Automatic annotation (TrEMBL):
Pfam family of the protein (one): Response_reg
Name of this protein: Protein-glutamate methylesterase/protein-glutamine glutaminase
InterPro entries from the UniProt entry: CheB-like, CheB_C, CheY-like_superfamily, Sig_transdc_resp-reg_Me-estase, Sig_transdc_resp-reg_receiver
Species of the source: Stigmatella aurantiaca (strain DW4/3-1)
Compartments where found: Cytoplasm
CheB-type methylesterase domain segment(s): 150-339
GO biological process, one term: chemotaxis
Gene giving rise to this polypeptide: cheB
Free-text note on domains in this protein's UniProt record: Contains a C-terminal catalytic domain, and an N-terminal region which modulates catalytic activity.
Similarity section: Belongs to the CheB family.
Residue runs in coiled coils: none
EC number(s) on file: 3.1.1.61, 3.5.1.44
Length: 351
């Protein structure tokens, strides 16, 4: 019989710790092996118990969540799932935690009893079980790699990126190394729990000279800016403007929908990347770009936190290029600045 997933629960509220432990242990696949109410205790128990997964609150007495995560990832690497309230400070701390090594984040429930709490408990269990499948890695230095020549074809007029687990730090790496004068817009589908998108946008705005914002319905996209979907919505392109629609289930926002819309609107002048993440989202959308002659690539296995999404894209034939994360900013720059290969319409016009 497969051994249970060993979980350490960290929260400064005894009620929340007990609630989470009860919800987790209702599933036979999970065993709660420790509880901590502050960051220093969490670090000590992580070193002593070596849990498979740690659920981590952020607003902790003494050493806060990001500080505890940084210490754990240095001394006793583990898969860390942030469980935090969605508030301005909590959302901002969440992305400090991601930078420190946390893999995912989910919002705390707004209720403490009833069916809504049980529904949230099922989400928590599912997240923990998915986390347990992710390889454990300590903090790694950036791996530089030679840049392969870009695909031949038209100059790219827009780049779409799809990402899930491990995506925010990968996006930070890419966006921080793109120039303010980037001549195209960048659109992103990053799977994220509803409520945390504004915090992610604020965090990424601090690491790049590009403008980073949440797209508005009907907004015309501008070069040198990065656009994310509104919480709980899918982002697509129609003409040169953003379209937002409430997600209808599945990964949110959808990488497939975003990338497919770029293929329809920009044709061979579209560029797409599938970054680290669980599942297969983005692969079919990237294939659509590849089939109209656009530029496609996927993050390589060595630099992906989770190779699921990039592998799906490669297996589907949506791209033949698997690039190290450190090579992706130069790849985008080259594709956006090479000479045009034929006459074309104005910026953002459909082909």
């Amino acid at each position: 019989m497969k051994r249970p997933i060993r979980v350490l629960v960290v929260d400064d509220s005894p009620t929340m710790v007990n609630t989470m432990a009860a919800l987790l242990t209702m599933d036979a696949r999970i065993e709660v092996i420790g509880r901590a109410g502050d960051g220093n205790r969490a670090v000590s128990l992580a070193r002593l118990l070596r849990p498979d997964v740690i659920t981590m609150d952020l607003l902790l007495p003494g050493l806060d969540g990001p500080g505890a995560i940084a210490a754990i990832m240095t001394d006793a690497p583990a898969r860390i799932l942030v469980v935090s309230a969605v508030a301005d400070r909590g959302a901002d701390l969440a992305f400090q935690a991601i930078r420190a090594g946390a893999l995912e984040l989910i919002a705390k429930p707004n209720v403490t009893s009833g069916e809504e709490l049980r529904r949230w408990g099922r989400e928590l269990v599912n997240s923990v079980c998915l986390m347990a499948e992710v390889p454990v890695v300590s903090r790694r230095a950036r791996r530089d790699a030679p840049l392969p020549p870009p695909s031949t074809g038209a100059r790219v007029d827009i780049f779409g990126l799809a990402a899930s687990t491990g995506g925010p730090p990968a996006l930070a790496e890419i966006l921080s190394r793109l120039p303010k004068e980037l001549p195209v817009p960048v659109v992103v589908a990053q799977h994220i729990t509803e409520g945390f998108t504004p915090g992610m946008v604020r965090w990424l705005s601090q690491v790049t000279t590009l403008g980073v914002s949440i797209a508005h319905e009907g907004e015309r996209l501008e070069p040198g800016r990065v656009y994310f979907a509104l919480d709980g919505h899918d982002l697509t392109l129609e003409g040169g403007v953003a379209r937002l629609s409430r997600t209808r289930g599945g990964p949110c926002p959808s990488g497939d929908l975003l990338l497919s819309s770029l293929a329809r609107v920009y044709g061979s002048r579209a560029g797409g990347m599938v970054l680290t993440g669980m599942g297969e989202d983005g692969a079919r959308g990237l294939l659509d770009i590849q089939q109209v002659g656009g530029v496609t690539c996927a993050q390589d296995e060595a630099t992906s936190v989770v190779f699921g999404m990039p592998k799906a894209a490669l297996d589907l034939g949506a791209t033949t290029q698997a690039l190290a994360l450190s090579a992706m900013p130069d790849f985008i720059r080259q594709c956006c600045t090479r000479p045009f290969d034929r006459p074309r319409g104005g910026f953002g016009e459909a082909v």
